[in-house]
């Protein structure tokens, strides 16, 4: 059996590509690329191909020792045919990832949802090791989730189970990247917080976050954390609002699915501990009394690597 696989976490802002030891789950080497979704799907494929070639060259591991390439993408996927059906945060639709990568690398190519692969990584080597009944929720550019029951990912009838980000929380609410109105993602993601802060700044609200936005930079999770540390009123208000909505979504999942464990991950959760602690406290308060006392919460243990590790084990 070949010892290594390549795992790719294709996100809204970055593409993380890693060489993973299949026996230990260790990330031997990794390469990071900016997604630059505004340049189109062909550019995303080019970035992945360049990243894989760079990874192989820098790690000095030949293709003969690599078993497969697994890709986790932020969107709805056709796992059987390796097609990214729809990814609003990537502005990609009907992109045949398997076909494109197969033309460059003579290896089996597998595709999964980005939070699905993160859940697999956490189950094999991270916070969910030893659990066979949990929900994984990642908060970043969007809000994604995956449901694990009896140690297996629940895909649903059309392969789209676990889309918590598109749970409707306001029937006449904000427009989501998916085109619908009132989705949780439009209220609880890092992108939603960014839009709320930017809107308030345009209206003349003051915030210390301006100190970090020189040179046309976008608002990042680390900027949000630094602003909270400085007790910025606007940023704390926007983060509290997002936490309020996310906790309601989590409470709905806890009441409906009744998992043993909820794992929270993603850039916002990792960088902003205030957001994480506030959200789980509110989620317990909003859940039914019995599951509220039993539910466990954990942060994703593998950090940035949960997705690439999980992707390496797709088959």
Structural notes for this entry:
The chain has helices spanning 41-59, 97-102, 114-125, 185-188, 190-202, 221-229, 233-257, 267-271, 273-286, 289-294, 305-312, and strands at residues 4-10, 14-21, 27-34, 66-73, 76-78, 83-87, 92-96, 109-113, 133-139, 143-149, 152-153, 261-265, 296-299. With 315 residues, it is of the alpha/beta class. The mean pLDDT is 92. Strand 5 (76-78) and strand 6 (83-87) form a beta hairpin. It folds into two domains: 4-121 and 305-312, ATPase, nucleotide binding domain (Nucleotidyltransferase, domain 5, 2-Layer Sandwich), CATH 3.30.420; 130-299, 2-Layer Sandwich (Nucleotidyltransferase, domain 5). The strands form three sheets. The chain has a five-stranded mixed beta sheet.
Topology:
Layout: E1 4-10, E2 14-21, E3 27-34, H1 41-59, E4 66-73, E5 76-78, E6 83-87, E7 92-96, H2 97-102, E8 109-113, H3 114-125, E9 133-139, E10 143-149, E11 152-153, H4 185-188, H5 190-202, H6 221-229, H7 233-257, E12 261-265, H8 267-271, H9 273-286, H10 289-294, E13 296-299, H11 305-312
Parallel strand pairs: 1-4, 4-8, 9-12, 12-13
Antiparallel strand pairs: 1-2, 2-3, 5-6, 6-7, 9-10, 10-11
Helix pairs in contact: 3-11, 5-7, 7-9
């Amino acid at each position: 059996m070949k010892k290594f696989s390549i795992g790719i976490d294709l996100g809204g802002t970055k593409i993380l590509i890693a060489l993973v030891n299949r026996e230990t789950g260790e990330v031997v080497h990794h390469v990071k690329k900016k997604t630059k979704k505004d340049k189109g799907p062909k550019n995303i494929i080019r970035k992945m191909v360049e990243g894989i070639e760079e990874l192989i060259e820098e790690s000095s591991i030949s293709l003969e020792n690599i078993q497969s390439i697994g890709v986790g993408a932020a969107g709805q996927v056709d796992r059987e045919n390796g097609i990214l059906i729809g990814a609003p945060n990537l502005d990609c639709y009907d992109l045949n990832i398997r076909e494109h990568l197969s033309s460059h690398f003579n290896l089996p190519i597998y595709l999964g949802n980005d939070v699905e692969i993160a859940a697999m990584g956490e189950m094999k080597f991270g916070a969910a090791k030893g659990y066979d009944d949990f929900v994984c929720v990642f908060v970043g550019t969007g809000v994604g989730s995956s449901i694990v029951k009896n140690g297996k990912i629940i895909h649903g009838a059309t392969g789209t189970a676990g889309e918590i980000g598109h749970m409707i929380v306001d029937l006449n609410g904000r427009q989501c990247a998916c085109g619908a109105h009132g989705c949780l993602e439009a209220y609880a993601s890092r992108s939603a917080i960014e839009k709320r802060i930017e809107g308030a700044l345009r209206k003349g609200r003051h915030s210390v976050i301006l100190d970090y936005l020189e040179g046309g930079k976008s608002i990042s999770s680390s900027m949000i954390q630094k602003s909270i540390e400085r007790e910025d009123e606007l940023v704390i208000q926007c983060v509290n609002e997002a936490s309020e909505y996310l906790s309601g979504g989590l409470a709905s999942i806890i009441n409906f699915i009744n998992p043993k464990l909820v794992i929270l991950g993603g850039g916002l959760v990792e960088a902003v501990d205030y957001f994480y602690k506030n959200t789980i406290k509110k989620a317990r308060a909003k859940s039914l009394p019995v599951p509220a006392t039993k539910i466990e919460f954990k942060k994703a243990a593998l950090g940035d690597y949960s997705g690439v590790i999980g992707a390496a084990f797709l088959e």
